[in-house]
Specification:
Elements lengths: L34 E17 L6 E15 L2 E13 L6 E3 L1
Antiparallel strand pairs: 1-2, 2-3, 3-4
The structure holds zinc ion.
The site of zinc ion (ZN) has 8 residues, from loops.
Length: about 100
C-alpha cells in the first residue's frame, strides 16, 4: 500500500488565520546613546614664577591638570593621559611639570 503525503489544503489556498509576524518598527531597534570624547583642563592654582620661552615675560604661571575623558550621558566614565602643566598667563604656552 502506498501512502501519499499530501496537504489537506489545496495548493494556493489562503492561509486562514496564520499570518507572518509583522516586522518591528525601525525605532524599536535603535539604542539611544549619548557619548563624547574630549580634553579637559582643570585649574589647580597659581604656579611658579617662570620666564616664558615664547614671549620672554617673567610672570607667575598657572598650574593646570589636563586629561582626556570619555563621557556617557554627560557622566565621565574613563579618564586617561593625565598630566600636570603650567601655563603662561600672557601667551598661553604650556610646559609639562
Ligand atoms: Zn608666554
Amino acid at each position: 500500500m502506498v501512502r501519499l503525503l499530501a496537504s489537506s489544503k489545496p495548493i494556493g489556498a489562503p492561509l486562514g488565520g496564520t499570518s507572518l509576524p509583522l516586522p518591528r518598527p525601525f525605532y524599536a531597534r535603535v539604542v539611544f546613546l549619548l557619548f563624547g570624547f574630549g580634553t579637559k583642563r582643570k585649574y589647580l592654582g597659581p604656579g611658579q614664577n617662570r620666564t616664558c620661552p615664547r614671549c620672554h615675560n617673567t610672570t607667575q604661571w598657572a598650574r593646570i591638570r589636563e586629561f582626556n575623558q570619555f563621557t556617557l550621558f554627560f557622566v565621565p566614565v574613563a579618564r586617561w593621559k593625565r598630566r600636570q602643566l603650567e601655563q603662561c598667563g600672557i601667551c598661553g604656552t604650556t610646559v609639562r611639570v
